[in-house]
């Protein structure tokens, strides 16, 4: 069987991310990912890596802090790439994120995935929260 690529629109429960907050994220100049003090039993290399890549603010991006937990059943566009051995499903509206990878001979799902979508951005909340 040759490889096959098709576009589908399955439905799955999802929470809406909501609109961007129109206010710029100017509320705090503190380090959003600051580590107060690493525990004394942490190796020096690990402590150094924990401090790497800290975010001082979100500019030039707007905050997306208006999401909710109410789930609906929208349709999502997915690309399904199928070969003799594998069937891979990619969520096109989430930047091509790999959603499912099935080993066809054993019918086994190779990825852990919940069958619903939560689009919230966990690391990007307002500093006051």
Write the layout of secondary structure elements.
Blueprint: E1 4-8, E2 14-15, H1 44-50, E3 71-72, E4 78-82, E5 86-91, E6 97-103, E7 108-109, E8 117-118
Parallel strand pairs: 2-8
Antiparallel strand pairs: 1-4, 2-3, 4-5, 5-6, 6-7
What string gives the helices and strands in order?
EEHEEEEEE
Sheet with the most strands: spatial strand order:
1-4-5-6-7
Low-confidence stretches: 120-129
Strand content: 15-25%
**What can be said about the biggest beta sheet?**
5 strands, antiparallel
Task: Write a short abstract of this structure.
The protein has 1 helix and 8 strands, in the order ββαββββββ. The chain has one helix at 44-50; strands at 4-8, 14-15, 71-72, 78-82, 86-91, 97-103, 108-109, 117-118.
Please give a structural write-up.
This protein is mainly beta and 129 residues long. It has one domain (4-118). 5% of the residues lie in helices and 24% in strands. It has one helix at 44-50, and strands at residues 4-8, 14-15, 71-72, 78-82, 86-91, 97-103, 108-109, 117-118. It has a 5-stranded antiparallel β-sheet, with no helix packed on it. Strands 3-2-8 form a 3-stranded mixed β-sheet, with no helix packed on it. A hairpin with a 4-residue loop joins strand 6 and strand 7 (108-109). The longest helix is centred in the middle third of the chain and has 7 residues, at 44-50.
Key terms:
mainly beta; five-stranded antiparallel β-sheet; 5% helix; 129 residues; disordered C terminus; 1 helix; 24% strand; flat; three-stranded mixed β-sheet
């Amino acid at each position: 069987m040759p490889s096959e690529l098709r576009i589908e629109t399955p439905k799955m429960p999802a929470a809406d991310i909501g609109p961007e907050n129109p206010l710029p994220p100017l509320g705090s100049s503190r380090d959003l990912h600051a580590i107060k003090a690493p525990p004394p039993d942490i190796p020096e290399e690990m402590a150094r890596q924990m401090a790497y890549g800290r975010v001082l603010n979100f500019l030039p991006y707007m905050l997306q802090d208006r999401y909710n937990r109410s789930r609906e059943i929208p349709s999502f566009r997915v690309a399904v790439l199928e070969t003799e051995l594998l069937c891979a499903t990619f969520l096109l509206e989430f930047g091509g994120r790999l959603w499912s990878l099935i080993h066809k001979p054993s019918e086994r799902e190779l990825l852990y995935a919940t069958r619903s979508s939560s689009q919230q951005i966990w690391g990007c909340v307002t500093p006051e929260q």
